[in-house]
């Protein structure tokens, strides 16, 4: 994958005596200057990038404050790996997470519960999946439920559940039971606090200062109130960052969008 491509000659780290632009610490220590020009210590750099991975972000970016806004410049994984001085365990953990996120980001993959290989679902409306790798690697036919990840029980096809006890769409459970909230500084009241991204289906909790959010998985910006993309001319009235949209407040979602690039 592109994340792990070996470069012919990686530039040597540039060490400077400046404050840590991630933590704000200004003690007299050597720190590394990143490609964006901001500086960080190995510990703070590792901690920040780990927090991004834990939130499901696929790319690393600089959080340094620039006149009240984040720098936002992207760092390559190679730069982070070099400057954060990752241990072998940390490096393996980072790369495993990046690989899984990349598989999920570019295609809809899940891990087969039998052979532990990543499998892509061809029919996005059918939860019954046949693992072709089980057949090729083990010479056996194995079917599992895309939703509960247990061996398939039931007959025919299904888009809702299999016959395994407890098989249910966890995302729909979250959407149905999340709290309602008033969007900050807004006239929009009783909005569901968690939404499924209308493009890729990732669940997102509203933590922003306005009604617009950017999905960390597909990077599409959308309105948390009406669920239209931010660039859709019907999404809002002029200057209505905190006001009602041209469209009404969307109710709780009862379906989770499935992202397909095909």
TrEMBL record:
InterPro entries (UniProt xref): E3_UB_ligase_RBR, IBR_dom, TRIAD_supradom
Molecular function GO terms recorded: ubiquitin protein ligase activity; zinc ion binding
Coiled-coil regions listed in the entry: none
One GO-annotated biological process of the protein: protein ubiquitination
The protein, known as: RBR-type E3 ubiquitin transferase
Residues in the signal sequence: none
Catalytic activity: [E2 ubiquitin-conjugating enzyme]-S-ubiquitinyl-L-cysteine + [acceptor protein]-L-lysine = [E2 ubiquitin-conjugating enzyme]-L-cysteine + [acceptor protein]-N(6)-ubiquitinyl-L-lysine
Organism annotation: Pelodiscus sinensis (Chinese softshell turtle)
Broadest EC class assigned to this enzyme: transferase
Residue stretches making up the RING-type domain: 16-249
Pfam families registered for this protein in UniProt: IBR (PF01485)
Assigned EC number: 2.3.2.31
């Amino acid at each position: 994958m592109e994340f792990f491509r070996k470069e012919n000659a990686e530039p040597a780290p540039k060490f400077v005596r400046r404050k840590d632009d991630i933590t704000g610490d200004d003690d007299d220590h050597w720190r590394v200057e990143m490609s964006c020009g901001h500086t960080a210590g190995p510990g703070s750099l590792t901690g920040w990038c780990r927090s991004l991975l834990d939130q499901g972000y696929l790319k690393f970016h600089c959080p340094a404050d620039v006149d009240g806004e984040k720098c936002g410049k992207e760092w390559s994984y190679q730069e982070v790996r070099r400057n954060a001085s990752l241990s072998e365990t940390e490096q393996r953990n980072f790369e495993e997470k990046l690989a899984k996120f990349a598989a999920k980001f570019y295609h809809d993959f899940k891990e087969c519960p039998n052979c532990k290989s990543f499998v892509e679902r061809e029919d996005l409306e059918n939860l019954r999946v046949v693992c072709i790798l089980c057949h090729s690697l083990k010479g056996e036919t194995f079917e599992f439920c895309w939703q509960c990840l247990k061996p398939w029980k039931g007959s025919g096809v299904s888009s809702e559940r299999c016959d395994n006890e407890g098989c249910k769409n966890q995302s729909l459970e979250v959407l149905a039971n999340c709290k309602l909230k008033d969007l900050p500084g807004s006239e929009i009241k009783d909005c569901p606090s968690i939404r499924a991204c209308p493009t890729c289906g990732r669940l997102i909790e509203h933590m922003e200062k306005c009604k617009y959010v950017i999905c960390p998985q597909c990077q599409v910006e959308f309105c948390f109130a009406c669920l239209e993309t931010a660039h859709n001319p019907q999404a809002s009235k002029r200057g209505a960052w905190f006001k009602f949209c041209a469209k009404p407040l969307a109710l709780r979602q009862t379906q989770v969008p499935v992202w397909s690039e095909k």
